[in-house]
Amino acid sequence: MTGPTALELLWGTQQRPKRGPKPSLSLERIVAEAIGLADSEGLEQLSMQRLAERLGCAKMALYRYVPGKAELISLMLDGTMAGAPDLVAATKDSAEEPWRARLRAWAVATFEWQRAHPWTLAVILNSRPFGPNEIGWFEAALAALADTGLNGPERLDTLVLLSGHARTLAQAALGGQTGDLEEGMAHQFTQAVAARAGDFPHTLAAFSEQATPESRDNALHFGIDRILDGLAALIATRNPEIQPVQPHR
């Protein structure tokens, strides 16, 4: 008899054993411990043996709940996404158009989720079964676009753009704190071109120009604004009565 698939485990459709003593483990506990291990030490350190040691059980005991590491990682990813962001509540005081404010909040939440669980950056690029928590995040963002006039593929592509931007910034921030990102890049650039500044005048000018308080360390929101500005122009073509918002500075 084969074990449950990742899809069955994610959606809770697998048959649970009805006989025997009450188990000392649970799937929820196994997944939570695995997430903690990956968060603290990286996904490369995760193994069924290492996980069993942390749980204080035999390695074979884990296979009563999950067939293998691939299925476990699918459960871990979905587990980190429990509780989709409440975009309506998060943006109730925003002066932006609702769809725009909610997509901004979604992109920021995506960035923060990936920073909290860096190992997910590689996992989300792989083909995998989708669980209810991950789809809940899709649902929250797509609801924000429901009345914009965009068709289904355009709404989905919007999520690809925003999540891709958030992922890029989360990846860049892995080496340090987000707030130090620009300063660190400027320092590295200065060291690299100290002796040949004349060969790279435009790059030197960009790094040397004094940043305003609004623009400093703002790559995340700058990119979100540019994506949303373009989206607003497209929405206006579908809804002539809606005028595109003025680009954010």
CATH topology of the largest domain: Tetracycline Repressor, domain 2
Q: Please, how many domains?
A: 2
What share of residues are in beta strands? under 5%
Gyration radius (Cα, Å) is 23 Å
* Helix-strand makeup class: mainly alpha
Please name the fourth-level CATH homologous superfamily of the largest domain.
Answer: Tetracycline Repressor, domain 2
CATH architecture level-2 label of the largest domain:
Orthogonal Bundle
Can you give the helix content as a percent range?
55-70%
Task: Report the top-level CATH class of the largest domain.
Answer: Mainly Alpha
Outline:
flat
Number of helices: 13
> Roughly how many Å apart are the termini?
61 Å
N-to-C series of helices and strands = HHHHHHHHHHHHH
- Specify the biggest β-sheet: none
Describe the protein's architecture and organization.
This protein has 2 domains: 75 residues, Arc Repressor Mutant, subunit A; 110 residues, Tetracycline Repressor, domain 2, CATH 1.10.357. It is built from 13 helices and no strands. The N and C termini lie far apart (61 Å). The chain has 249 residues and is mainly alpha-helical. Helix 2 crosses helix 5, helix 7 runs antiparallel to helix 9 and helix 10 packs antiparallel against helix 13. It is flat.
